[in-house]
Amino acid sequence: MNPTTTEATIDDTLAIDSESTQRLFLEARTANRFSSEPVSADTLAAIYELTKMSPTMMNNQPLRITWVQSPEARQRLASLLAEDNQGKTRTAPAVAVLSYDSDWHEHFPTFFPPAPERKAMFDGDSTMRAEIGRNNAWLQAGFFIMAVRAVGLYAGPMGGFDAAGVDADFNAGTTHRAFLVVNIGKPGENAWFPRLPRLSADIAVRTV
Question: Is the pTM here over 0.90, yes or no?
Answer without folding.
Answer: yes
